[in-house]
């Protein structure tokens, strides 16, 4: 079933409008946040602080917004990237799973009227939105992955081990919570996600202890789990809290973050008009590796195999790389916003269908 719901009447689509080192870095920046209490300031005092947008100028430059273009921001959040693209004259569909993000961005971007089209849903479903709205495609698609500072800082959302809250961690308002995973999954499955998504060396030990303890009292809060992990795996002078990796793994699992990105990449060629840009900002190596491999496979003009006498045209040549090297934050941004240190942006452009082999 189609999962995207426009949240405002103005959001309706009008026919003419259409519609291991990296991991360590991100973990370090979350840990620094724990120490510093986060960073950044709001552009709008009335609205209050929500999230400090990363790679703002860079992302907007590559998305090349102009009047007449229809762009999608698949991770609207506080609307930082979207605002700049609207200011440049583009129509922007802002997609987010989190109703609170849509509420905040809706207020911030109200002045753009029908030019801004907020959509509640998962960015993995954007192709359906485009098809249902009768559009051929869009002129750019941006995703800035992960959680917003606001989500992370709200104890009620259960993302942070430094604040007592329910063990939730859902970006949206549906589906199983982190508590459901921790209290219901088999030991081997817990160990697998702690290892695969968190790179947690003590994955098996932590999974075993969780399963022993939950028999006595189920895990209900963030601090209950974080304190137990700290007991089993003492800090021993490390800056990173011992629960950091397990919390990251649970968040990735609960929100199926890798599955959503995979689906976006698989449909990206159909989503974009020729010349349309795909910009992906990721914050850990699992995501970035997926994007890098995808773009390598889809930007090769030819493919070769040992048994072939000569290379052949690549039937999946869909993109040209816009920047060969990934785009990262400059020193000034990193000094202002620790989270930006682990941001990696990759950009590619949908090739003209005629240009393809
Ligand atoms: C890092 S924030 C984006 C911040 C935004 N670029 C800004 O400048 O304010 C990520 C946002 O994406 C949303 N999000 C993450 N995964 C999503 C998905 N698969 N579908 C829709 N929204 C998603 C989160 O709820 C969060 O609000």
What is the secondary structure topology, with strand pairs?
Elements lengths: L4 E2 L14 H16 L19 H8 L6 E4 L6 H8 L3 E6 L2 H10 L7 E5 L5 H7 L5 E7 L4 H5 L24 H7 L2 H12 L4 H14 L5 H11 L11 H11 L2 H15 E11 L2 H15 L2 E2 L8 E2 L5 E3 L9 H6 L7 E7 L7
Parallel strand pairs: 2-3, 2-5, 3-4, 5-6
Antiparallel strand pairs: 1-4, 6-10, 7-8, 9-10
Describe the structure.
The longest helix has 16 residues, at 21-36. The chain is 41% helix and 14% strand. It has helices spanning 21-36, 56-63, 80-87, 99-108, 126-132, 149-153, 178-184, 187-198, 203-216, 222-232, 244-254, 257-271, 285-299, 331-336; strands at residues 5-6, 70-73, 91-96, 116-120, 138-144, 272-282, 302-303, 312-313, 319-321, 344-350. Helix 8 packs across helix 9, helix 8 (187-198) crosses helix 11 (244-254) and helix 12 (257-271) runs parallel beside helix 13 (285-299). It has 357 residues and is an alpha/beta fold. The radius of gyration is 21 Å and the shape is globular. It has an 8-stranded mixed β-sheet with strand order 1-4-3-2-5-6-10-9, sandwiched between helices. The site of S-adenosylmethionine has 22 residues, from helix 3 and strand 3.
């Amino acid at each position: 079933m189609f999962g995207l719901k426009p949240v405002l009447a103005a959001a309706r689509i009008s026919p003419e409008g259409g519609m291991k080192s990296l991991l360590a870095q991100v973990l370090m920046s979350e840990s620094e946040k724990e120490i510093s209490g986060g960073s950044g300031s709001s552009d709008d005092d009335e609205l209050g602080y929500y999230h400090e947008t990363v790679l703002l100028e860079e992302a907007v430059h590559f998305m090349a917004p102009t009047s007449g273009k229809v762009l999608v921001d698949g991770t609207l959040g506080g609307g930082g990237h979207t605002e700049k693209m609207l200011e440049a004259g583009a129509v922007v569909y802002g997609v987010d799973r989190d109703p609170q993000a849509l509420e905040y961005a809706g207020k911030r971007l109200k002045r753009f009227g029908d030019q801004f089209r907020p959509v509640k849903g998962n960015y993995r479903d954007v192709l359906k939105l485009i098809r249902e709205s009768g559009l051929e495609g869009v002129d750019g698609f941006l995703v800035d992955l992960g959680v917003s500072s606001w989500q992370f800082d709200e104890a009620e959302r259960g993302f942070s081990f430094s604040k007592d809250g329910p063990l939730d961690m859902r970006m949206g308002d549906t589906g199983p919570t982190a508590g459901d995973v921790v209290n219901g999954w088999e030991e081997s499955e817990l160990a697998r996600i702690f290892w695969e998504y968190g790179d947690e060396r003590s994955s098996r030990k932590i999974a075993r202890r969780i399963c022993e303890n939950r028999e006595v009292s189920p895990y209900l809060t963030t601090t209950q789990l974080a304190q137990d992990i700290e007991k089993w795996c003492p800090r021993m002078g490390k800056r990173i809290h011992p629960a950091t990796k397990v919390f990251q793994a649970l968040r990735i699992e609960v929100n199926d973050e890798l599955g959503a990105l995979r689906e976006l990449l698989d449909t990206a060629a159909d989503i974009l008009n020729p010349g349309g840009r795909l910009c992906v900002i990721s914050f850990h190596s699992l995501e970035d590796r997926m994007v890098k491999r995808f773009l390598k496979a889809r930007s090769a003009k030819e493919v070769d195999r040992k048994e072939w006498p000569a290379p052949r045209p690549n039937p999946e040549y869909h993109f040209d790389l816009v920047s060969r090297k990934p785009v990262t934050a400059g020193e000034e941004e990193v000094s202002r916003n620790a989270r930006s240190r682990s941001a990696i942006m990759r950009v590619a452009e949908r090739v003209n269908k005629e240009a393809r082999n």
